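Subject: sequence -> structure tokens, single chain

Hey, anyone have a minute? Need the predicted structure for the following. Not urgent.
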Amino acid sequence: MDEVESTLDGELLPVVESQGPADVEPLDDQLVILYIEDNVANLHLMESVMELRPTVTLLTAMRGTVGFEIARDQRPDLILVDLHLPDLDGRDVLRMLRDEPLTSELPVAVVSADATPARIAEVRTLGADYYLTKPIDIHELIAIVDHHLERRQAAHGEPG
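Reply:
Had a minute. Here:
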């Protein structure tokens, strides 16, 4: 098992990819969200938030390259990507997603503590649909998730 550069209480943490490209079979009524984040505490927070929406399947990747592969293979309904990953910058992941025909149209939210207007403008220019600053505003995150849940339900002819 690989180890990541992030630490919790000084210990190296094992790489935990909660879902791999072929590991998930979400139900048709599930909104699939991919969260590319290397901080375990942030992953746990996102898992807790997504428990508020039982129709969400959360996939996670702790490295940008793995996240890109999952995005390409699974084509989730929404991708959340941190800017600071151990193997790639989140902007590089965003560029890869936008350059790949299978992922170029997928909605992407960049998640970062860097809330400077210049950084936000930069990632929006690169193709980010949303920019969530850390600490994450849970209401803003849920509003984005709910928007995509409604879009999915409308696309499948399900009542809202």
